[in-house]
Structures are given as C-alpha cells and as structure tokens.
Amino acid sequence: MTTTDTSVQEHPTPTPPANGTTLRSRSLPRWAPLAFAAVSIALGVGIGSAAGWESRIQWGLVSAILFVAISYAATTAVENERQAKDRLATSLVWVCFLLAIVPLASLIWTTVGRGAEVLDGYFLTHSMAGVLGTEPGGGVYHALIGTLEQVGIATVISAPIGLLTAVYLVEYGKGGLARAVTFFVDVMTGIPSIVAGLFILSIMLMAGLQPSGLMGSLALTILMIPVVVRSTEEMLKLVPNELREASLALGIPKWRTILKVVIPTAIGGITTGVMLAIARIAGETAPIMLLVFGAQLINPNPFEGAQSSLPFYIWEQYRIGSEASYDRAWAAALVLIVFVMLLNLVARGIARWKAPKTGR
Amino acid sequence: MAKRIDIGGLTAFYGSHKAIEDISMTVEPRSVTAFIGPSGCGKSTFLRTLNRMHEVTPGGRVEGKVLLDDEDLYGPGVDPVTVRRTIGMVFQRPNPFPTMSIYDNVAAGLRLNGSYKKNQLADVVEKSLRGANLWNEVKDRLNKPGSGLSGGQQQRLCIARAIAVEPQVLLMDEPCSALDPISTLAIEDLIGELKERFTIVIVTHNMQQAARVSDRTAFFNLSAVGKPGRLIEIDETERIFSNPSVQATEDYISGRFG
C-alpha cells in the first residue's frame, strides 16, 4: 500500500497574519438598526415638513431610503465593506417587508374601523327588505345566505371534479391526454371571472333559464376547478413514491392504494388548497351580477329566483352613495373578510390535525 | 407455505433500455438466496421482476418466464395484485405509512385487501410483530404513529407488515443498508428465523452479510458500462465465497475488481 493516511495532517494549519491576530473587529451595537430607523424617520419627517409635502407616503418613502443609506454608510465607516453589504441586504428586506405590510394593515384597520360601526346582531340577521338605500338600517342576512349557498354549491361541484382530475394527472395520466388536460387547466386558471360569467350567461340564454344562485355557482365552479386541480396535484406529487410501492407490494390494488394511502397522506394539503380556492371565489362579483341578479329580499332557494351575495351587496351599497349605504358596504366587507379568514383558520387547523404524525 | 421460483430466460427493460438480460436460476423454498454484485448491475431490477413491481416503473417491461411452483407469474390472466399478495417485498429504506399507527401499519395489508375477519386482526398483528421481533418494543404503544420508531424498528415494522399477509416468498431489497450494525444484526437474526417459514431472496452490497445469512448466493455483473446486467453464477454460499467457479466472482469477492 502506497497511499498515505489522509486522516493525519502533514503540515500544521498556517497561522493567520500577525496584524489580524484577533478574531474580533470593531462592530456596531445590537441596537444600531433601531437607532438608524429612528434617525431616518426623524429626518424624513423633518424634510417632509420643511418641504411642505402633504402626503405621508412621501415622508415614509424618504425615511425608507434614508434608512437604507444611513445603515450602509454607518456600517462602512465603523465595520467594513462586507458587513455593510450584509447590512444593506438586511435593510432592504426590512423595508420591502414594511412596504408590503403597510397597505394590508391599513386595509384591515380601515375595514374594521368603519365596518364595526354598524356591524351587530341586527345587521347579520336582517335583509334589506323595506329599507330605502339612503336610510340607515337593514342588514346583510340575504347576501350572507346567498354567498354561503352559491359558494357551497360551487365547492360541492368543483372539489370532487378537481380532486379526481388531479388524481388522474398524478397517478394515471401519461401521454397526450394528460398533457392536454394540464394545458387546459392552465388556460382555465387565467380565465377572468367576467368571461366565466358570460359563458354561463350564454348557456342560460340558449336554454331559456332564469337567473338563480345555481347559475352563479356554475360560473364560480369554472373559476374554482383549476385552482383545486393545481393545488391537489402539487400535494399528491409530494407523497413519496415509496409509500405507493410499499402499498402495491402488499398486494393492495392501485385504486385502494390511492384511496387509503396516497390521499390520506396528502389530505391536509388538499384541504388547504380547497379552502384557499373557496376564499378566492367568495370574493367574485362579476358572475353574480350577470347570473344571480342581486336581490333585496331573503331568498333561501338557490335554484330559483334572484339572490344576493356579499361582494355584490358591497358593490350595490357603494353605488347608492349615501352615508348609511357606505356604512353598510364597509360592514359587509368586514363580514366577507372575516368569512374568508375563518375559512383559512379552519384549513390550517385541518392541515395540522391531518398532517402525518411524527410524535414518539 | 414456501414455494420454489424458477426463472427462465428473463430479460427486463426500462423503455428501450435493456437492464438485465437472459437470467435463468432456481430459488429454493425455505432458504435464503442472496444477490450480490456491483451497483447498477440489475440486482434490484431483477428482484422487482419477481413480484411484478418492475412494471410499476413507467416503461418497465419483462420478457421470459418466472414460475412459482410451475405457475407463470407473467402468464395470461395473471393479476399482478394477486402475485404481490403471494410474494411480499421489503424495501431499502423503511417506509411505514405515515398516516397510520403501528397497529394499522401491520394491519394495512389485510385491511386494504379486504380479506380478514375482524376478530382475527389483533391476533395477526401480534403474531406478525412477534415474528419480526418487534412485539416487546411496541406492545405498549400500538396506537402511536409508526414514523416515531427508530430506523431499525421501522424496518422491522415493514417486515411485520409484509409477513402479516402471509406471503409465500419474501423479497428484500438491501433491507439493512440504511441501518446501524446493531439493527442490522437484529434483522439478520430475523431473516434466519423467517426462512423456516418463507422463501427469502435478499439483495445486499455487504458481502459478509451475504455470507452470514444466505444458503445460496448469486453473483451479477455487467459485461461493460451501458450493457445489460447478467447472472454470472449461482451456487452454495460456501462455495461462492471459498472456491467460485468463475474468475470474475472471485475478483469481486476478494476486492480485486476491475
């Protein structure tokens, strides 16, 4: 054997040059970023008020730019170039995060603030029957029922179709048909809601049907299916192939393998996907305007007669243009946001509850 | 219980790529047959053709015959699902079902086949876990998830799951390659016990393991890179490791390869 034993080092590790004997270098204190932020906000406010700018957005943007510049300059001066680049990247990430969060926080703040004014038990349990649009009073009950029923029907139709399509694509599909299905699902993802509405409207006119909640649900179904297919497909692809093989090797038929092993493993993600799809269609207005027509009265039957829905109600109240109707629009917007948020929480809960367990 | 396998002129393809070519051998019942050979020589592919798992891979197809006590696995009208119920398989990496408890994992084969009596299920689970030398370690936590066990325990759980459906033959694809020496020893002892009841075929990269556990050893090799794998020789393990009849086998076993 001529190979040398590589586990023993032949030469000692070279000592670092004498001028850099210490590993420590000058550094800014931990509270430095906060100080930079305070200084740049103060400067931003100062510049803004000195120049007489009205818009607080301008003040904020100036502060943000100053924050990035001050952090970079100070770190270059005190520490070194590499640390400064690091600080620059960190500052940029923080600024972007704040820029993204400001509109969201402002939206929630405004909606909760204005919506809470008229949102109470009465608002949730009464319709607009006999209430003039310009007067206070009335409620959102008929729209809430409409949204729940239309979204419910759309989910009952699209969740199974979407799930089965995804199962086909992941477990069975190969060749031309699967590629075609994937392509058309992608195309469907991009369909604007008004086009889906017009499509159902044209069928409705040809078949001589009357507007109803069901027609709206059908248009929502067109919007929902591709979202469900896409998310379910990704979740099924995440299921390790070893589990499928383990099941098949036990002599379990393929369909039972999919039903009892693959889908249960992915059910948390699939549920989340369906819930997010529901959240997406719950806010659609255009198909409802075309196909459900909107109503002031409670119509619990989604198969006959006009209904309302939350997004439609918001639009309708906004159009009236009185103080009372604006309040109602904000309150309905708050109801819609809470509805979607609850769905998301439920989805997260189910995902956590159904996630494959790792506990000992 | 245990059955003999006769393989005649077996060739397996992935699409147009020929992975193994013209393999003929006999696997004796109630014995352990080990497959050794360099990586990529088609041992695993060959193993998977023995219970029709090869065709699960897209493009996988097979020519030739595999006779299980004179019945051709690839004959017309043979259902691969029935084949796999008769010939079980344990994989390289432990793969318990993550959504199921230890109990449900072992019961999965019977339950999902629909061929069980409810009052017998608990007995079968206990018997299988005892058979896999795992009962004492898990009997107090049968309802805990199987993924919480250690790697070696998970692999024994997978063996328990495989023997719960009472197969005739058990195929093992490098069952110890992801395990530490102690877990490996536990599995090897288990193989020694299981061969009383099953015909066992094991693929291994560990030559000492093949020498320890197997009665007969088959050596596979590639004639060149890109060429299909072939069976070089199969004989009593003792003879393969002491006095093989082919020079290539001796080179491989003694480490003077290539």
CATH class category label of chain B:
Alpha Beta
Please state roughly what percent of the residues of chain A sit in beta strands, choosing from under 5%, 5-15%, 15-25%, 25-35%, 35-45% or over 45%. Answer: under 5%
| Fraction of residues in β-strands of chain B | 25-35%
- DSSP E strands of chain B, number: 10
Oligomer description: heterodimer
- Tally of individual domains of chain A: 2
Report the major sheet of chain A. none
Description:
- The complex is a heterodimer of chains A (360) and B (258).
- Chain A contains 13 helices and no strands.
- Chain A is mostly helical and 360 residues long.
- Chain A folds into two domains: 27-114, no CATH class; 141-354, MetI-like fold (Orthogonal Bundle), CATH 1.10.3720.10.
- The model of chain A has no long low-confidence stretch (mean pLDDT 88).
- With 258 residues, chain B is α/β, with parallel strands linked by helices.
- Chain B is built from ten helices and ten strands.
- Chain B has helices spanning 43-49, 80-86, 102-113, 118-131, 135-138, 151-164, 181-194, 207-213, 237-242, 247-253, and strands at residues 5-14, 17-27, 32-36, 60-68, 71-72, 87-90, 169-173, 199-203, 216-222, 229-236.
- The mean pLDDT of chain B is 89.
- In chain B, helix 4 crosses helix 6.
- Classes of the chains: A mainly alpha (360), B alpha/beta (258).
- The A-B interface holds A 174, 240, 242-253, 256-257, 260-261, 264-265, 354, 356-360 and B 51, 53, 56, 58, 81-86, 88-89, 91, 93, 95-99, 108-109, 112-113, 144-145, 147-148, 158, 161-162, 165.
- Chain B: Residues 5-247 form the ABC transporter domain.
- Chain B: One of its GO terms (cellular component) is membrane.
- Chain B: This is Phosphate import ATP-binding protein PstB.
